[in-house]
Specification:
Elements (H helix, E strand, L loop, with lengths): L2 H12 L6 H15 L6 H12 L6 H18 L4 H10 L23 H5 L18 H14 L15 H9 L5 H12 L9 E2 L2 E2 L7 H26 L7 H29 L5 H21 L8 H11 L5 H28 L11 E3 L8 E3 L10 H20 L3 H16 L8 H24 L3 H12 L5 H14 L8 H13 L19 E5 L8 H4 E5 L5 H4 L10 H35 L4 H48 L13 E3 L5 E3 L26 H16 L20 H35 L5 H34 L4 H10 L1
Antiparallel strand pairs: 1-2, 3-4, 5-6, 7-8
Helix pairs in contact: 1-2, 1-5, 1-7, 2-3, 9-10, 9-11, 10-11, 10-12, 11-12, 11-14, 13-14, 14-15, 14-16, 15-17, 16-17, 19-20, 23-24, 23-26, 24-25, 24-26, 24-27, 26-27, 27-28
Length: 837
């Protein structure tokens, strides 16, 4: 007896449809163990069935099926031995429900071809698998065979020799009801062209196959009708966008696909004629149309997200598919890519020769931007196609921007016209009119030509290098004599309240300072005072109560085109030059007061030494003033050391790096030459035998020019911005960096410096007050008057006390800064701490 086989047949007929075949076999095995177990009860059976109930959705119909299975198993468990159980199982197939038969039409969920079914396929790699209610694997074959065997099972005791019949006689009634292949071939061409027919009706994107068609033909029809559904979908997309405004590139793509669909229609019509001559079968038809199905799958995949995909994205996709392993896919991709690339070529050449983006429909990697003040075009990295090398992308962007720069701001109209005509002819002579090594060679030539010419115009016509040098000499006080002359002449005005300052008066003082300093050599030169005329005096808006010293600043006015490549107090920018000048202005202000009051103090000391009367009093005053002179010298020395360090190690050092980056790589040493460095002693040694620098190990920084001969306009702007940024990011000037915070003061070095410079200025004010009261004492001593002497001496002692307190404050702050620098851990900061000590 085969108890397990019969039990599995009962289980297969009763369980819900969604339970997988492996689970059915496992359930049959568990139920068999349960029936042969000595401990059978209802709770045990429920626990067995609960495991498999969770594998299918809960519905009323499924619940009824589980209850039916439970009832039958409980009935079987009432028998005491296996023989009685087997006898019951042999007749239980009459109690179990059978699988639902096929409808007159194929059901929507299982046997309908639809776009949703096609979407679950790999349209380019594998043919569609036809859904069927019949066995689809050896696993399902066993399942259906078991049911069929069970239902046809008859005990040998019922065998009757008189009932013998051949297999042909048994199946003949069934075959006579099946549709003929010739009838199907007559209707198949209509379905392949997405046209409904009596045999294969189409509705809502689905094709229904009659039930009187055998499995073999049904499977072939499923594969054939994939072409009809794909044709229907593609044709609807083409017709839908025919009257909608889309980009020319996408319109061309649809035109090409539409032409392919018309070719497909002609192909199907030719096959239809062949079928009428009885020269086709379903198998041969599928063999002939297979390549067409691959093409339709390809087009369906291309148009999958047509509305959300731009033309440039299609170019990148098609470019990748040009190297596909399937020759059909490769050929279609090459054809579509060639038809679309002409529009992209037009976008590219318009930008390269005219600096314009004409109707690009958001399909180019250069886009307009409202954020850019001068040349409103930016690079959109997400739009860069993979068929253009990255080094070419940056050159393409620069060529168009530089053309606009020369035409709009430099007014080089004659050159721009000749440049545009020359390269338009070169691009038009490229036969393929698409991306190629020849195109990239012309772009490279064009880039070097326009960059070299632009640098020549900036230097010769707009005096780029002269402006760069005057910015350093005046705003960064590389030549401070002009600032010193300006302070000398405007000191009285600068000491007045800020409300009384006049821009006209400050400008007059500035002009006089230029004429009486080394900068008078810049006047009446070949540039027609172009460079020196950019210098301007300004008053900062710091509010009521400020004095001239606090609000005065120098500025340099730069107009386009220089302002595009030199960010000098550019509108809405960080005002780097203004910030650096105001910082250095504190040093010059302290120097001025120190020098002025030191001269006054020395003069007072000489005059006091001439007085013969009241020698003890005079000696006491001389001693105290002399000691304060010593303190003032120490403070001034500290101020000078800081100023010298800031200029030499921060400003001048970065300016030399800036000049090096500006110089052409053609004039630089070759990679085979040995680099040298000059020591403080004047000895020149090889750069490499000294302590290793951090810069060679910084892999994140890249050269601004790579292999280019000269920096372009973006490179010039970036180099200058980096130059300013490097100065302001120095630990002594940076305020936002966590690395510039002192260990002991717990405040940024820049803040400590400002406090120190303010403290030095406060000391100067007390020193001025000391000189004032000493001068009055000197007058009284010379007049031999004693009326005001006591009061003056009291003031003298008070000022003396204040100046000592201020010196102690300065001393505390300076020592704290030195401790912070010593504890920084940076060699440069440690060196500075020793220098200031």
């Amino acid at each position: 007896m085969n108890f397990e086989v019969n039990l599995q047949s009962i289980v297969e007929g009763l369980v819900p449809q969604g339970l997988p075949p492996p689970s059915i076999r496992t359930l049959s095995y568990d139920l068999s163990r349960y029936l042969h177990s000595p401990n059978k009860n209802s709770s045990h059976l429920d626990s067995v069935l609960a495991i498999y109930r969770r594998q299918v959705p809960y519905t009323l119909e499924n619940n009824k099926k589980w209850d039916s299975l439970k009832n039958i198993v409980e009935n079987i468990s009432n028998f005491d031995n296996s023989e009685e159980m087997f006898r019951f199982l042999s007749n239980s197939h009459l109690l179990s429900p059978t699988r639902p038969q096929r409808d007159s039409m194929i059901s929507v969920n299982h046997n309908s071809l639809s776009p949703e079914v096609l979407n679950r396929n790999d349209h380019l790699l594998s043919p569609m698998k036809s859904p069927s209610v019949y066995a689809e694997s050896f696993e399902n074959l066993d399942r259906f065979s078991a049911i069929s065997s069970h239902q046809s099972y008859q005990p040998y005791r019922n065998f009757n020799p008189n009932n013998l019949s051949t297999l042909e006689n048994l199946v003949k009634p069934y075959y006579t009801k099946l549709g003929s292949e010739d009838d199907m071939l007559n209707y198949v061409p209509y379905t392949l062209l997405a046209t409904t027919s009596d045999m294969f009706p189409m509705e809502f994107g689905k094709i229904r196959i009659p039930e009187n068609i055998a499995n073999a033909e049904s499977g072939l029809l499923h594969k054939l009708f994939e072409a009809g559904l794909l044709y229907q979908r593609l044709n609807s997309i083409v017709e839908h966008y025919r009257s909608i405004s889309i980009s020319p590139m996408k319109k061309t793509l649809l035109v090409q696909i539409g032409q392919s669909l018309r070719n497909y229609t002609g192909f199907v019509n030719s096959l239809s004629a062949s079928s009428k001559n009885n020269s086709l079968t379903l198998k041969s038809l599928y063999s002939k149309i297979f390549d067409q199905i691959i093409q339709l799958r390809y087009y369906n995949k291309v148009l999958e997200h047509f509305e959300d995909t731009d033309g440039d994205a299609y170019l990148s996709q098609l470019n990748n598919l040009r190297m596909h392993g399937d020759p059909i896919v490769q050929d279609l991709s090459i054809r579509l890519f060639s038809s679309l690339i002409s529009y992209y070529y037009e976008y590219l050449t318009n930008w390269l020769t005219l600096g314009k983006l004409v109707s690009i429909n958001n399909e180019f990697f250069i886009q307009e931007s409202k954020d850019s003040e001068f040349i409103p075009y930016i690079l959109n990295k997400s739009k860069i196609p993979d068929f253009i090398p990255k080094n070419m992308v940056s050159k393409i962007v620069i060529i168009g921007k530089t053309y606009i720069f020369l035409q709009k701001y430099c007014k080089e109209l004659q050159y721009c016209n000749a440049f545009s005509k020359d390269y338009s002819n070169k691009y038009s002579q490229i036969q393929s009119q698409e991306v190629s090594p020849e195109l990239f060679s012309i772009i490279n030539e064009q880039y070097h030509e326009i960059v070299d010419y632009t640098n020549k115009v900036l230097i010769e016509k707009f005096h780029y290098m002269k402006v760069v040098n005057i910015l350093k000499d005046i705003l960064l006080m590389g030549k401070s004599d002009i600032v010193e002359v300006l302070i000398e002449r405007a000191s009285d005005v600068l000491s007045a309240p800020s409300e009384s300052l006049s821009s006209y008066e400050l400008t007059r003082f500035l002009q006089e300072a230029v004429q009486n300093s080394s900068f008078r050599n810049w006047l009446n030169q070949g540039d027609r005072n172009f460079v020196i005329n950019g210098l301007d005096a300004r008053v900062l808006d710091l509010g009521h109560g400020s004095i001239g010293w606090d609000v005065f600043t120098l500025d340099y006015i730069i107009e386009p085109p220089l302002s595009i490549v030199l960010n000098v107090n550019r509108q809405n920018s960080k005002k780097e030059y203004l910030r650096i000048f105001n910082f250095l202005w504190r040093f010059k202000k302290n120097n001025y007061f120190s020098k002025r009051e030191k001269l006054r103090s020395n003069m007072l000391i000489r005059e006091l030494k001439k007085i013969q009367r009241n020698r003890p009093l005079v000696r006491d005053i001389l001693s105290k003033v002399s000691k304060i002179n010593v303190l003032e010298s120490q403070i001034q020395q500290f101020n000078s050391k800081l100023e010298r360090y800031c200029f030499q190690d921060i400003i001048d050092k970065n300016f030399k790096d800036f000049e090096t980056k500006l110089s052409s790589t053609k004039t630089e040493n070759s990679s085979h030459s040995l680099k040298t460095i000059k020591l403080k002693s004047g000895l020149i040694v090889l750069d490499g035998i000294l302590k290793a620098k951090n810069q060679p190990f910084n892999t994140h920084e890249k050269s601004h020019s790579d292999d280019d001969s000269e920096p372009n306009i973006d490179g010039l702007d970036n180099i200058h911005n980096q130059y300013l940024s490097n100065m302001l990011s120095h630990k002594l000037l940076a305020s936002a960096s966590s690395e510039s915070i002192g260990t002991f003061s717990e405040q940024p070095y820049s803040t400590s410096l400002i406090f120190l410079l303010n403290s030095i200025y406060e000391f100067s004010t007390h020193f001025t007050a000391l000189n004032d009261v000493t001068h009055e004492v000197l007058i009284q001593l010379n007049l031999h008057s004693q009326q005001e002497m006591n009061h003056l001496l009291s003031r003298f002692n008070t000022v003396l006390t204040n100046i000592v307190v201020q010196y102690k404050k300065f001393r505390t702050q300076s020592l704290l800064l030195i401790k912070d620098l010593r504890a920084d851990g940076n060699d440069e900061m440690i060196k500075l701490s020793r220098y200031l000590r």
